[in-house]
Design a protein that fits this description.
The longest helix has 20 residues, at 344-363. The protein is an alpha/beta fold and 364 residues long. The strands form four sheets. Strands 6, 7, 10, 11, 12, 13, 14, 15 and 16 form a nine-stranded mixed beta sheet that branches. Strands 3-4-5 form a three-stranded mixed beta sheet, sandwiched between helices. Strands 1-2 form a two-stranded antiparallel sheet. The chain contains eleven helices and 16 strands. The protein is globular and about 70 Å long. 44% of the residues are buried. The protein has helices spanning 4-12, 50-63, 95-102, 128-141, 158-162, 203-216, 235-243, 257-272, 303-311, 323-331, 344-363, and strands at residues 16-17, 20-21, 28-34, 37-43, 70-76, 113-120, 146-150, 171-172, 175-176, 179-181, 184-188, 222-228, 248-253, 277-288, 295-296, 315-321. It has two domains: 4-102, Fe-S cluster assembly (FSCA) (GMP Synthetase, Chain A, domain 3); 113-363, P-loop containing nucleotide triphosphate hydrolases (Rossmann fold, 3-Layer(aba) Sandwich), CATH 3.40.50.300. The structure holds adenosine-5'-triphosphate and magnesium ion. Residues 128-129, 152, 157, 228 line the site of magnesium ion.
Length: 364
């Protein structure tokens, strides 16, 4: 009977790259198997068009094998420096080795934080930036030391949301000093370059910019780093998952089906690179009339809660549509930084902060 390694080699040989069977190229760096789970690490330059297609092809071919039911493909730009000996590649490791090897090999910035959390969504405009910043403030009000990284290279909203538009960080001995605002240490590309300059950047430039901001900022370290991600599942998401050891991702969605389909895409993307989902936040969940208190579910309601049950991830809470949330964002005075607020949205952010902490406790 063929060994698993032989089976892998023969199904991967069905994939051709520039006229050669995949196993004869240098692309597949390593493979780790744990019961029915196989994780491949492949190495492709950032500009390679194969990044879009090869992971799916590998997944499909490997999943055809009867002994494998789950496949993940991690795409790295370069082979990890601490390379495994040649003979260990594509073999079935003992359990401890497999556990260690399953930890993705990443360049780890932000190691001086206890937990690095990405706030993400598949769809744009669902309130990631609003949730990231107010969640960061709610966590800080609970006594955690929190930093904030605006990773939305294409459309940074941190400068407007905090009133720091046009404020440049200080440069000290080639390090960028984080901006200090509302008790947070923060950095955003929006404080370094003109508003529209980054819009035209393509993959490699974005990757470099993310690395520079992570590496060259004198991050003070602390309990929690919140990363506000751009929408979707593109270059920045990939860069962040390679550069930081993320403790988990908080996925933001609105309650409509379409937004939830995109939220699922985000969940799938993170699980492919072994990043746990801390949970889903349902934003713009309902509108509570400030005059009569009646609740109207403008975008329908409870969609995210149902999705959480379906995908078996924690539900972190529902934030209502509130004028003060929108105005706070536009005026640089986030809701959680306004005078003690007991509005439903403020209560929701506090509850979500608690749920994030307990979800992290359950994960680690
Ligand atoms: N709960 C809420 N109540 C009222 N307005 C909200 C709420 N959440 C977000 N908004 C408003 O919706 C708009 C979009 O929110 P935000 O910029 O946070 O979304 P985003 O997901 O970060 O967008 P992008 O995908 O462009 O980064 C903003 O004007 C924001 O103030
Ligand atoms: Mg945003």
């Amino acid at each position: 009977m063929e060994s698993l390694e032989q089976q892998f080699t023969s199904v991967l040989a069905e994939i051709e790259v520039d006229g050669r069977p995949l196993p004869e190229t240098e692309i597949v760096h390593s493979c780790v198997v744990n019961n029915d789970f196989a994780k491949f690490t492949i190495v492709l330059p950032l500009e390679s068009r194969l990044r879009q297609i090869l992971p799916t092809q590998i997944e499909e071919n490997i999943r055809n094998l009867p002994s494998i039911s789950r496949v993940a493909v991690e795409v790295l730009e370069k082979a990890p420096i601490d390379d495994e000996p040649e003979e260990n590649k594509a073999s079935i490791p003992e359990s401890e080795k497999s556990r260690q090897a399953r930890q993705p090999q990443r360049t780890a910035y932000l190691q001086n934080y206890d937990a690095v959390l990405a706030v993400a969504s598949g769809k744009g405009g669902v309130g990631k930036s609003t949730v990231s910043l107010n969640l960061a403030l709610a966590l800080q009000q609970k006594g955690f030391s929190v930093s904030f990284f605006d990773a939305d290279i294409y459309g940074p909203s941190f400068p407007i949301m905090t009133g720091l538009r046009g404020v440049k960080p200080e440069l000290r001995e080639e390090n960028l000093m984080p901006l200090e605002v509302m008790g947070l240490h923060a950095m955003s590309i929006g404080n370094l370059i003109d508003d529209e300059a980054a819009m035209v950047w393509r993959g490699p430039m974005v990757h470099q910019a993310v690395e520079q901001l992570l590496r060259d900022t004198a991050w003070p370290g602390g309990d929690i780093m919140i990363i506000d991600m751009p929408p979707g599942t593109g270059d920045v998401q990939l860069s962040i998952s390679q550069f930081c050891e993320l403790a988990g991702a908080v996925v933001v969605s609105t309650p409509q089906d379409m937004a939830l389909v995109d939220a699922y895409k985000a969940i799938t993307m993170f699980s492919k690179v072994d990043i746990p989902i801390v949970g889903i936040v349902e934003n713009m969940s309902y509108f509570a009339c400030p005059h009569c208190g009646e609740k109207t579910a403008i975008f329908s309601q409870h969609g995210a809660e149902e999705a959480c049950r379906k995908y078996e991830v924690p539900f972190l809470g529902a934030i209502p549509l509130e004028l003060a949330v929108r105005e706070g964002g536009d005026l640089g005075k986030p809701l959680m930084n306004q005078a003690p607020s007991d509005s439903p949205a403020a209560e929701a952010f506090r509850l979500i902060a608690d749920n994030v902490i307990s979800s992290l406790d359950d994960l680690y």
